[in-house]
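DM from R.C. (forwarded with permission)

"hey, sorry to bug you on a friday — could you get me a structure for this? deadline for the figure draft is monday and I only need the backbone to look sensible"
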Amino acid sequence: MRSTPWLPPVLWMALIMWLSSDTASAAHTASWLLPILHALAPWATPAQLEAMHALIRKGAHLTEYAILAALWLRALIRGRAVRPSAAAAIAFAISLAWAILDEVHQSFVPSRTASPTDVAIDGMGALLAVVVGRLGWRRAAERATVLLLWLAAGGGGVALAVNALTGVPSGMLWLTTPLAAFGLLGRRLWWIRRRGLGVEGPTAPP
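My reply, with the result:
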């Protein structure tokens, strides 16, 4: 029988909904995960072990919705239902909608709680998956780097100005802000040089 590209994401959605029941509550995962963490990190205090447990659970949120978005992106592209660009938007929208429904469902489970933070984490995972799926790892990493450099340079510049006006020491901002600006300048000059040599490469940096 011919397999359908829609089956994997639908099954994954069912798995997510099952995990949002009492089966994967914090109390249940703690019962087996905390002993493992204690064995791996015997030096950790109970509070540190609980923090590790919480971090792993949040990481699971990010991962499961990244997988869901990737599966929907694959299904939509293989099914040729829409253009690839639209497929990415639809895959993200479906994943985010399911994240919201998942949290609504958890609000009715006594051992679970609904959390807007979890929806945000789920959305980040889905967004990461569709961006990487559309751009590839290299271009996605490149654009993320440029965005972070702009945030560091622009945000650092604003912070330096505010600190100067209010008399607050800026500390490491005097180092990180110029470094970010030089990073952006160096990338721009590298791109201009490549274009001058006729080397095919990525589009102009922002």
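R.C.: lifesaver. Residues 116-166 form the longest helix (51 residues).
me: no worries. The mean pLDDT is 82.
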